[in-house]
Specification:
Elements: H1 9-44, H2 54-71, H3 77-101, E1 108-110, E2 117-118, E3 122-123, H4 125-144, H5 154-180, E4 184-186, E5 194-195, E6 198-199, H6 200-221, H7 234-252, H8 256-277
Antiparallel strand pairs: 1-4, 2-3, 5-6
Helix pairs in contact: 1-2, 1-7, 2-4, 3-4, 3-6, 4-5, 4-7, 4-8, 5-6, 5-7, 5-8, 7-8
């Protein structure tokens, strides 16, 4: 008699993996279509039908779902949801604290265009923005650091570079959010240097909050059963797509310093990420 081998779960696991791939592809197609529509609206300056802001909200929701589904191809779903939950909680708490006290980002107020408030304080998109920014910045950092993924200090470099990319994303986001969409408003400060009205401490705080968040979520994002897989370009596509969106919107409103910065950041990040991925 031949020994029993537990192969019954293999077809189910294969079907589950295939379903994750197809779900991610479907969400990615919808995200790309919504992004192209928004980009066309920015470039061709036509008004979108329906209530203002609905396409931006749809883009954020699709970006969040696409980010989660991309990670579930490498990690268990419960790990990804745990990480997303911690990021949204800590990132949202930091922004709510900032709106109430001016710490750590500097004094600002949320505008009505930012969306309905959670607990009458925090606009609902803010926690999702943190999820998209942190997880995709980490994905881009993994591409950049791919040649050094087997070194002992790789984990520390990954955390540090993720925080740097998060702060860089903040530089691109802020002029779009404040001067184009009026999601929040910066109040006068004593800081002598600012970027498009935002104190520089804001962007340092983005990186610092990212470091704090990563200290909690990194264990959930470590693949306990690593296998050699091809580079995942989804985080880079989301990261660059957002920066390009911000840049085109700023160009439409004549905010050219922001356009130059967005283009420079996009080119540098894309060059290093593609070089690392091809290693």
């Amino acid at each position: 008699m031949r020994p029993f081998t537990p192969t019954g779960n293999k077809p189910a696991a294969a079907r589950d993996a295939k379903a994750k791939v197809w779900l991610h592809r479907a969400v990615s197609v919808l995200l790309a279509a919504a992004w192209a529509w928004m980009l066309a609206a920015n470039c061709l300056t036509f008004n979108l039908p329906g209530k203002p802001g609905w396409l931006e909200a749809l883009l954020l929701l699709l970006a969040t779902i696409g980010t989660v589904t991309a990670l579930t191809r490498q990690l268990p779903l419960q790990n990804v949801l745990l990480a997303a939950g911690i990021i949204s909680l800590l990132g949202g708490a930091a922004q709510a604290l900032g709106a109430a006290t001016g710490i750590p980002f500097g004094p600002f107020l949320f505008g009505g265009e930012a969306g309905s408030r959670l607990f009458k304080t925090l606009p609902w998109p803010i926690p999702l923005i943190w999820v998209v920014v942190i997880l995709n910045s980490r994905g881009v950092a993994r591409l950049i650091l791919r040649p050094w993924r087997k070194t002992r200090s790789y984990g520390l470099w990954l955390i540090g570079l993720t925080a740097l990319l998060t702060g860089s994303f903040g530089f691109a986001l802020d002029p779009f959010a404040t001067r184009v969409k009026h999601y929040w408003l910066w109040l006068p400060t004593k800081f002598p240097v600012s970027w498009q009205g935002a104190p520089l401490v804001n962007f340092l705080s983005w990186g610092a909050v990212a470091l704090l968040i990563l200290a909690f979520v990194t264990p959930a994002l470590i693949n306990k059963n690593p296998t050699r897989i091809s580079p995942d370009y989804h985080p880079l596509a989301v990261w660059l797509g957002a920066v390009l969106w911000f840049g085109t919107a700023c160009a439409q409103h004549g905010i050219w310093p922001a356009v130059v910065l967005d283009g420079t950041v996009a080119v540098v990040v894309a060059a290093f990420a593609i070089r690392g991925a091809r290693w």
